């Protein structure tokens, strides 16, 4: 398999930006990415643009990337629009890397952008509603709750995915009773400490475990800090061939050792061995010629605190049943054996859906270059990103795992 590198990255702050547009946010991330790579826009031979909600929220269908990037000067080159739920950003990266590996492009851009705050609430709920099978929406949610042994959640203003995560939490705690609400809160408190060090995060106030537990409940046992907020923001990554990396700056180019995208399986809730992120991770490690023991740090999809617990176990970074305990013990904190979500994760950054996966790559590239400042993981060599989206049956409809290697070897 041909090598592929990340030459440059750029990311806006995430948060509430009522005066910004999808195009304005995307243009900012693009400019930061090109500056980081030290190249001009003319070097970009193709664009993979990730966005999940603009069609539902603003009526911009069919040509989202072309419309969003026109003011930034993107024209003439092919623009591919990528919609894959919350995994849209990593799917765009995967497609950019595939195009470069195939020799179709020497330099390709993966960029994700989303503007979600200020949208009509009915349209926003409908957008998230569409992350499940709309033909079997009530049936699917009822089946999940029944299998998980979870009660129906009380009415409230929230994404349906909070109900999904509440059911999954009930099932996990049935199988692992020592995963107490306090240990789940330790995951969030850890991520909030990390987020306090990230100037681009939407939530930068550190919280204690007690403060997390005392906050407003969204769906039991998940409190408000345990749930990622929606967000506005954009992130970009420039992917290139080894020849381009040598020509333009191999000293800072981060190698993509593996990139895997998969769709969910028809497993039962108890078939952990068939969990899609577990299968995708196994394939990614095999392609990279590495294993979980080689990983220096990870960014995982913590749309809620239990999401991090699931994914660090699926990635093989901690033993089954110990995802929350690892956070409580400091194993997955900065200074611990294997830091997870050094960016602060979705719980701190927020979740601008189309940008999230590329934002994870931004954090890992920054860490692997040794440029993360106060949140730097010393000697980081291998980074893993996990990004999932949508929900079918008992797991994510789309899942992606990316393995990155620090600069230091010849491109």
Provide key terms for this protein.
411 residues; alpha/beta; two-stranded antiparallel ribbon; 38% helix
Counting DSSP H or I runs of 4 or more residues, the number of helices is 15
- Secondary structure tally: strands: 11
Major pleated sheet: 9 strands, mixed
The helix content, as a percent range, equals 25-40%
Query: Structural class, from helix and strand content?
Result: alpha/beta
Radius of gyration: 20 Å
The oligomeric state is single chain
Mean pLDDT, nearest integer?
A: 95
Q: First CA to last CA: what distance?
A: 14 Å
- SSE sequence, one letter per element: EHEHHEHEHHHHHEEEHEHEHHHHEE
Low-confidence stretches: none
Instruction: Write out the strand line-up for the largest beta sheet, numbering strands in chain order.
Output: 3-2-4-7-1-8-11-10-9
Q: Looking at the structure, what is the overall shape?
A: globular
| Approximate strand percentage | 15-25%
Describe this structure in words.
- With 411 residues, the protein is α/β, with parallel strands linked by helices.
- The protein has 15 helices and 11 strands.
- The strands form 2 sheets. A 9-stranded mixed sheet has the order 3-2-4-7-1-8-11-10-9. A two-stranded antiparallel ribbon has the order 5-6.
- The longest helix is centred in the first third of the chain and has 16 residues, at 22-37.
């Amino acid at each position: 398999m041909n090598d592929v590198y990340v030459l440059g990255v750029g990311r806006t702050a995430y948060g509430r930006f009522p005066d910004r547009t999808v195009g304005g946010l995307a243009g900012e991330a693009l400019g930061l990415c090109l500056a980081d790579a030290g190249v001009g826009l003319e070097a970009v031979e193709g664009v993979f643009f990730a966005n999940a909600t603009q069609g539902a929220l603003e009526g911009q269908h069919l040509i989202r990337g072309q419309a969003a990037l026109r003011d930034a000067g993107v024209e003439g080159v092919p623009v591919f629009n990528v919609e894959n739920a919350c995994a849209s950003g990593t799917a765009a990266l995967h497609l950019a890397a595939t195009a470069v590996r195939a020799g179709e492009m020497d330099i390709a851009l993966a960029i994700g952008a989303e503007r979600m705050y200020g949208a009509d609430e009915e349209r926003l709920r409908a957008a998230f509603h569409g992350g499940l099978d709309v033909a079997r929406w009530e049936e699917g949610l009822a089946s999940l709750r029944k299998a998980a042994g979870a009660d129906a959640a009380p009415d409230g203003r929230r994404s349906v995915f909070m109900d999904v995560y509440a059911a999954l939490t009930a099932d996990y705690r049935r199988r692992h009773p020592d995963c107490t609400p306090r240990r789940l809160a330790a995951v969030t408190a850890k991520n909030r400490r990390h987020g306090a060090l990230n100037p681009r995060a939407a939530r930068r106030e550190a919280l204690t475990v007690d403060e997390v537990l005392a906050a407003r409940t969204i769906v039991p046992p998940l409190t408000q800090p345990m749930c990622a907020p929606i967000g506005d923001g954009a992130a970009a990554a420039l992917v290139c061939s080894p020849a381009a990396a040598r020509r333009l700056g191999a000293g800072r180019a981060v190698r993509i050792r593996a990139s895997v995208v998969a769709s969910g399986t028809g497993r039962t809730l108890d078939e952990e061995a068939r969990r899609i992120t577990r299968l995708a991770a196994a394939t990614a490690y095999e392609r990279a010629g590495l294993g979980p023991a080689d990983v220096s740090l990870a960014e995982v999809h913590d749309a809620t605190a239990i999401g991090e617990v699931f994914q660090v176990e699926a990635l093989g970074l901690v033993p089954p049943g110990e995802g929350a305990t690892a956070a409580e013990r400091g194993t997955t904190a900065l200074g611990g054996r294997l830091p997870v979500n050094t960016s602060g994760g979705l719980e701190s950054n927020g979740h601008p859906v189309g940008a999230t996966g590329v934002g994870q790559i931004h954090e890992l590239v920054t860490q692997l270059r040794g440029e993360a400042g106060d949140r730097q993981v010393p000697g980081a060599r291998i980074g893993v990103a996990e990004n999932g989206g949508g929900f079918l049956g008992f797991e994510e409809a789309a899942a992606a795992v990316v393995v990155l290697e620090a600069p230091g070897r010849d491109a």
